Amino acid sequence: MSLYTSNSLFPTSMLAIPNGQPTQAEGKRNSIFLDVTPARTPYLKPASPNAVGPLKNNLMSDISRDIVYENVKPVFTILRVMGVLPLTRPSPGFNQFSISSPSMIYSAVAYFSLVSYVLYLSLHKVQILKTSEGKFEEAVIEYLFTVYLFPMIVVPIFWYETSKIGNVLNDWVAFEIAYKKLSGRALPVRLYKKSLAIAIVIPALATASVVVTHVTMVHFKLGQLIPYVFLEILTYILGGYWYLLCETLSVCATVLAEDFQMALRHVGPAGKVAEYRALWLRLSKLARDTGISNCYTFTFVSLYLFLIITLSIYGLLSQISEGFGVKDIGLALTACCSICLLFFICDEAHYASHNVRTNFQKKLLMVELSWMNTDAQTEVSMFLRATEMNPSQISLGGFFDVNRNLFKSLLATMVTYLVVLLQFQISIPEDTSGDEGDYSNTTSSSTITEAITTTMTTILTTVAAKKKKKH
């Protein structure tokens, strides 16, 4: 048997290959082919300077900037300018939070300046446009302008969660690298224009909304407008930030599902199925971590929007018998904007969870297994089991899942509390003399305090009962 040993590309110390067949296979007629990814050929220095060496793998190169961050960058910039997101980037593709960083110092100075300004303005309280009767609903509207200042609490909460947000962004970089290694192309996320539009339109609309509300409902000075504008922009820019995170998950899930469907058209896709399963598990973890990293922030935002919607709609309903006036324009605008924001928060999270899990399950259930080998069928079954066992719902720290059912439940609960408030209004007797006016105003203030206390107690009782049922 002749041996072929003259190969200048490889050292002569390698085993001889008889007629192109390995010596270990001599005497065996049946060859075994495994459906696995072959090992990469090692790079060996050519024996001759004129010999042609193997090409280097230039598929993966160091990422100079992470795609997800760059797409959401306009909104991140707005949050950092407002002192809400003290995130630092020591190098492209790496995000971290440091309490001693210049970004954190700037955020602390901006926040405490705002708090000091609000405390100063509290000495000159905003005057509500009141009628001579001093009605119960006017007391509710007065409390509404105090509730408008509640988003100040969300700033330190967001600071606390900045480190988790940075970890999620770093996980996105790892996902981008894994996707590029598998597909050979960069992650096709194109949300920069939407992010830029959100960063421009939301501050403009939020400022206009506050101006209209204050013109129609209160006597205000120009200086008193600043904190309300800041907090209104903060509330709605957080909604835009949440929308972009969920939209990124939806886009990546759709792209991954299409790529996976294309990969199944090739013969023997067992290795590819395993790689796509690992990539899907990364995406599923990102969906869960998105909710966990923003847990307390959006729990507070959801409850805040619920309270704003309830009080605003009550202010509108209380004027039905007398007809709508100029003062109701601000209430209607506040109620509509808050309902839309709450709906988008719930709907986008529902849509993202649906794309991450349900779309992949559909692709897997529609796979034709008859032409596949045993290994490929096993991988597909394991993939399907992974989608069932790994939850992809966006949950706020386990308190509740953010989906359309949450929006429906909040609206149903809001109707109950509106009925309670309207009953309190009906039960208050109308004052008939000037001497009784002071007593009526005092009764209105004490009654509204009792109503809000009762409402908050009912909310807490309902939440506790739901959690008890789950356990």
From TrEMBL:
InterPro entries, sorted: 7TM_chemorcpt
UniProt keyword annotations, A-Z: Cell membrane, Membrane, Receptor, Transducer, Transmembrane, Transmembrane helix
GO biological process, one term: sensory perception of taste
Pfam families: 7tm_7
Lineage top rank: taxon: Eukaryota
Subcellular location: Cell membrane
Residue ranges of the TM segments: 104-123, 143-160, 195-219, 225-244, 295-317, 329-346, 410-428, 448-465
GO cellular component, one term: neuronal cell body
Primary localization: membrane
Membrane topology: Multi-pass membrane protein
Job description of the protein: Gustatory receptor which mediates acceptance or avoidance behavior, depending on its substrates.
Alphabetical list of PANTHER family matching this protein: GUSTATORY AND ODORANT RECEPTOR 63A-RELATED (PTHR21143:SF131), INVERTEBRATE GUSTATORY RECEPTOR (PTHR21143)
Family: Belongs to the insect chemoreceptor superfamily. Gustatory receptor (GR) family.
Protein name: Gustatory receptor
Lineage: Eukaryota, Metazoa, Ecdysozoa, Arthropoda, Hexapoda
